[in-house]
Structures are given as C-alpha cells and as structure tokens.
C-alpha cells in the first residue's frame, strides 16, 4: 500500500511540474506574440511612411523641376513634335 501511495505521489508531483512548466511556456509565448504584434504595427507605420515618402519623391512636379534645373531639359517646341497615325 505504501508503495502504491509513493507511486501516486510521484505521479501527482510530475503532473504538477508539467502543469507549471506548461503555464510558464504559455506565458512566454504570449509575451513573445505580443512583442511581435507590436513590431508588426511599427513596421506597418514605417511602411506607410515609406509609401508617402516615395509618392513625394516621385511627384510629377518634383521630377519636372529636377529635369529643368539639374538636367537642363525643356519641353519640345511645337515644330519638334511629330504625330504618327496608327
């Protein structure tokens, strides 16, 4: 009888340790998950800022201004334009 009680006690202790270990791992995973969600939100904000920056850099007026000022480009004159019929 004492032997059975000892086996049951060991089984209960092992089970309790397994529950504690499982709870600890679950809490660590939840913390890691929340950290990754925060990182995802920060990356989404950065992505939005980069898209806004790209649209600013690629704005037609800006490109035209750089073409005029830095590259010395000008629109063609009317006599330089040739229309081709399909």
SSE layout and pairing:
Blueprint lengths: L1 H56 L2 H10 L17
Q: What are the defining features of this structure?
A:
86 residues, mainly alpha, 2 helices
Describe the structure.
This protein has 86 residues and is an all-alpha fold. It contains two helices and no strands. The longest helix has 56 residues, at 2-57. The model has no long low-confidence stretch (mean pLDDT 94).
In short:
By secondary structure, the protein is mainly α. The chain has two helices and no strands. The termini are far apart.
**In this structure, how is the largest beta sheet organized?**
none
The poorly predicted ranges are none
Indicate how many domains the architecture comprises. 1
Pattern of helices and strands = HH
Query: Could you say which overall geometry the principal axes of the C-alpha atoms support?
Result: rod-shaped
Radius of gyration: 35 Å
β-strand amount: under 5%
Structure class: mainly alpha
Question: What is the helix content?
Answer: over 70%
Count, helices: 2
What is the CA–CA distance across the termini?
102 Å
Counting DSSP E segments of at least 2 residues, the number of strands comes to: 0
| Overall average pLDDT | 94
């Amino acid at each position: 009888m004492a032997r059975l009680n000892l086996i049951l006690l060991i089984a209960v202790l092992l089970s309790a340790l397994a529950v504690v270990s499982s709870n600890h791992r679950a809490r660590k995973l939840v913390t890691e998950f929340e950290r990754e969600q925060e990182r995802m939100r920060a990356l989404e904000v950065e992505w939005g800022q980069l898209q806004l920056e790209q649209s600013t850099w690629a704005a037609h007026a800006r490109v035209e201004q750089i073409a005029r000022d830095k590259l010395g480009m000008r629109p063609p004159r009317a006599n330089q334009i040739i229309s081709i019929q399909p």
